[in-house]
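Letters spell out the chain; the tokens describe the backbone. To illustrate:

===
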Amino acid sequence: MKRINLFLALVLGSGLVSTAAARGQDAKPSGDAGAKAGQQAPAQDKDAKGGTAYSGMYTFLREGEFVQVTVEDEGHVTGFISRFGDGESDKGAFLDQFFKSGKLDGNRLNFTTEIVHGVAFDFKGTIERGEGKNPGDEAYFVLKGTLTENASDVNKKVTSHSREVAFKMFPQDAAPAPVVRK
């Protein structure tokens, strides 16, 4: 938990989260307008049905990486993956991959990221209740499904690697406040 808080402090301090707004990524706060910044209001039936309760930050493949999911009107989903690069030119560099498309239908979630340094991701799965007891707890929701990594080489040959994943929602006190674009 201390690592997550340290990581988030570094991210917030570096202005990385604000790059979402700078790049034109729409995000809307989830929860009540009266909720404190950085905290999500308890999931209510209307939020769960509309999907807004699912909005938040989830773990990704390695420690320090995450997926930001924002459920908007009519099941439209925006967000991004922040991950460490694996290639020779970007090894260890922090990369943001914004969603090119995203859709939530009930609890079924699909998204595809933009290509960054020859890599794009596709996720097809569901959002399910996790181990967390109360809204705002770690793993209150979990993204479960198939993540496909599509990598292209210099000759434009694409290789795909799929794996089953389960990404846990970060606790709300560890997540930064949602970025709102005016």
Notes: The first strand starts at residue 56 and ends at 59. Residues 1-47 have pLDDT under 50 and may be disordered. The CA atoms of residues 46 and 52 lie 9 Å apart.
